[in-house]
Amino acid sequence: MDDDGYAISYKLLERGVPVASADGEQIGTVDRVLDNAREQIFDGIVVRAPRGLVFVDAPEVARIAERGVTLSIDAAEAAVLPEYEPGPPEFQANPRAGRVGRLLGGGWKRRR
Length: 112
Description:
Low-confidence stretches: none
CATH topology of the largest domain: SH3 type barrels
Number of strands: 8
Helix content: under 10%
CATH superfamily of the largest domain: PRC-barrel domain
Radius of gyration: 18 Å
Largest sheet: 6 strands, mixed
């Protein structure tokens, strides 16, 4: 990537942005960003690669920019990144459920 734009926060990273290894080879595109919302910590990204969805851990991400993500690992290391496995579902309280909704089990909703 010649000009990937200005550096941005991981919170602004959009789906479809190209992801390149440290040696400049494009390995795929961003599928989603993973973070720990409670602690506001960047956890990594899920990359749509030719072999499927792979997980890139936060320490392996060197730069996040408007038009590209650059990793700190080379293409050979990127080729053996682990497949993405979703974690357990998370639930949060649903304050809009009301008394009857909570009584019927609607007091929780699945986090997306």
